[in-house]
From TrEMBL, chain A:
Entry keyword annotation includes Phosphoprotein: no
Source taxonomy: Bacteria, Bacillati, Actinomycetota, Actinomycetes, Kitasatosporales
Any Pfam family: BPD_transp_1
Annotated region described as Disordered, given as residue ranges: 1-28, 319-339
Top-level taxon of origin: Bacteria
Family: Belongs to the binding-protein-dependent transport system permease family.
Database matches in InterPro entries: AA_ABC_transptr_permease_3TM, ArtM/GltK/GlnP/TcyL/YhdX-like, MetI-like, MetI-like_sf
Protein name in the entry: Amino acid ABC transporter permease
Bilayer topology: Multi-pass membrane protein
């Protein structure tokens, strides 16, 4: 009589077997076990092994020549070269985006002349490789020995030697700026187009002066769309300044080459340049994060905490998870709040 | 009878091949509230936007307080004004949009201070004081430092009304001020507009709120197909309409 009563294991679906209750009497007595992810642990272990291997190679492979790296990374020549790189980047960024913003608004203006000029500028300067353009500017004096102001096709009233007016650094800045402006123009135009038409209309209905409409109302909102791409561009420009080594300007990459050309220590000196580029780019990324945060004002009802703030909250033992969504965050939001 | 504040004469406007306004004549007297009703596509919003030259007219003219809007008359012609002149004229005409169009990156107080300071060159301190008074008047005294997106739709529209009032306009234009709001928030915005009406502000309101029109309007204008079909006191137009088209429209919305 025993056999028919004992169902084969697994055959009885929950709740179907007579005598076995479908649900436990006391739900609180059960523990919930989240899904396990063994593959993630395996992947993490593999990555860790690779990282350790790489670090071990860095430390033990004599070709890296860490002593040479150490001797040059903060040497006066290199630090001065880093400074030149920073200057080139700063000038080309500021001037490039100024010119680019003007071009963007020309492109968006009602005047067919301005629109065409801006379009033509972007077309030509996006078409010429930067390195070709730089060499052109470097050889400007071959093309125009003297630059002057006068009546078109008439007498020249004032002129200077091209090389006196534009030094090598000047030529590099002009080249980088003109190139950058073409890209900046499109980035800014994209940002301005992303701002709701009603914003400009409201500003016009309030009688705000034209320039004020742009500077106070449109541009700050356009920045939300401009900044991520602009960040890319500036990082690209920082590294792109290495191209001006063709003009024998003492920026970071050029100086590194000069040094290893002299002493033959190629790998450690390339490492010096690499580390500096990585450090500068990282600093730019941090700056970008905070600038983006500033221009996000008003976009979210509760601005997300900064990484520092999050770290502080974590150290204080508060649940940092409040920023990640999930139940605690929902509960923190006032119910019935709406947009 | 008070003087004519807004004078609309023979206004025509086309978008491409579609003629949206086909000869509009309308006079709004100082201190009165004119409510424009009509089916969608009847040209209500276009007419309202033409009053502060957000839309250019093709024929006819619009005057506000005796001044031609957007144009200068010389000989038998109307010449369009320079943008600077048009912007100056707009500071005398308040406009409230259906979608509020508050500046989301500025606080509520900054939204109100912006135009008086940069368009009318008022001292900032004075503009801030006015802003606080106006916010109190629309029942949002505590919200000066909030950002617009932190407010409900009804609160945002009340801020937008206060922003328009900050310029002390001669006339206030409302373009469907409650159409973007949830039903339970409509009342708080209409209450603010009613309050302004009692205070003697000249207003033109485009709306679908027939009850509001009945209560507040001095004149109701029924617009259809780009022409004024009929106009008159609310009781006449809304309760005993003379035209079949008005009756057909009202039977749908009431």
């Amino acid at each position: 009589m025993k056999a028919p009563a004992a169902a084969p294991p697994g055959a009885a679906s929950p709740g179907s077997g007579p005598g076995t209750p479908p649900l436990p009497d006391d739900p609180a007595s059960l523990t919930v076990v989240p899904a396990r992810h063994p593959a993630r642990w395996a992947a993490a272990a593999a990555v860790a092994v690779l990282l350790v291997q790489f670090a071990h190679g860095l430390a033990t492979n004599p070709v890296w020549e860490w002593d040479v790296f150490g001797a040059y990374v903060f040497s006066e020549t290199i630090v001065r070269a880093v400074w030149v790189t920073l200057q080139l980047t700063a000038y080309a960024t500021v001037l490039g985006f100024l010119l680019g913003t003007v071009l963007a608004f020309m492109r968006l203006s009602g005047s067919p002349v301005l629109r065409t000029v801006a379009w033509g500028y972007v077309w030509i300067f996006r078409s010429i490789p930067m390195i070709v353009q730089l060499v052109f500017w470097f050889n400007l004096s071959a093309l125009y020995e003297r630059l002057g102001v006068g009546i078109p096709f008439g007498p020249v009233l004032w002129s200077v030697e091209s090389n006196d007016l534009i030094g090598t650094i000047g030529a590099a800045v002009i080249g980088l700026t003109l190139h950058q402006a073409a890209y900046a123009a499109e980035i800014v135009r994209g940002g301005v187009l992303s701002v709701d038409q009603g914003q400009r209309e409201a500003a016009a209905a309030l009688g705000l002066p034209r320039l004020r409409q742009i500077r106070r109302i449109v541009l700050p909102q356009a920045m939300r769309a401009i900044l991520p791409t602009a960040g890319n561009e500036i990082v690209g420009l920082l590294k792109g300044t290495s191209v001006v080594y063709v003009m024998s300007i003492g920026e970071l990459f050029y100086q590194t080459q000069v040094i290893y050309g002299r002493n033959g220590r190629v790998i450690p000196l390339l490492l010096v340049a690499t580390v500096w580029y990585v450090v500068l780019t990282s600093l730019l990324s941090v700056a970008q994060y905070y600038v983006e945060r500033r221009f996000a004002r008003g976009a979210d009802r509760t601005p997300p905490p900064t990484p520092l703030g999050r770290a502080r909250a974590f150290l204080r033992g508060l649940p940092a998870a409040t920023t990640r969504g999930g139940p605690p965050a929902r509960a923190a939001e006032p119910p019935g709040d709406r947009r | 009878m008070s003087a004519v504040m807004v004078d609309i004469r023979g206004v025509h406007k086309s978008f491409g091949a579609t003629e949206v306004l086909r000869g509009i004549d309308l006079q709004v007297r100082a201190g009165e509230v004119t409510v424009i009703v009509g089916p969608s596509g009847s040209g209500k919003s276009t007419l309202l936007r033409a009053v502060n030259h957000l839309e250019k007219v093709d024929r006819g003219w619009i005057g506000v307080d005796g001044e031609l809007i957007g144009y200068r008359r010389a000989g038998g012609k109307l010449y369009e004004l320079k943008e600077k002149e048009i912007l100056r004229q707009r500071t005398r005409i308040g406009f409230v949009f259906q979608n509020f169009n508050l500046f989301p990156h500025l606080t509520v107080a900054e939204n109100l201070v912006e135009a008086p300071v940069s368009a009318l060159r008022r001292p900032r301190r004075e503009a801030v004081a006015t802003a606080r008074e106006l916010l109190a008047r629309v029942g949002l005294a505590g919200k000066a430092d909030a950002y617009p997106r932190q407010l409900s739709g009804g609160q945002q529209q009340r801020v937008a009304i206060a922003r328009a009032l900050a310029l002390e306009p001669k006339v206030l234009l409302f373009d469907e001020p409650t159409s973007a709001l949830d039903p339970e928030l409509v009342g708080e915005v209409l209450d603010v507009i009613k309050d302004l009406a009692r205070g003697g502000t000249t207003m033109i309101v485009v709306t679908h709120e027939i009850g509001f029109a009945r209560e507040v309007a001095d004149t109701v204008v029924f617009l259809d197909g780009g022409v004024v079909v009929e106009q008159g006191p609310p009781a006449a137009v809304l309760d005993t309409p003379r035209h079949e088209r008005t009756r057909a429209f009202l039977s749908k919305v009431l």
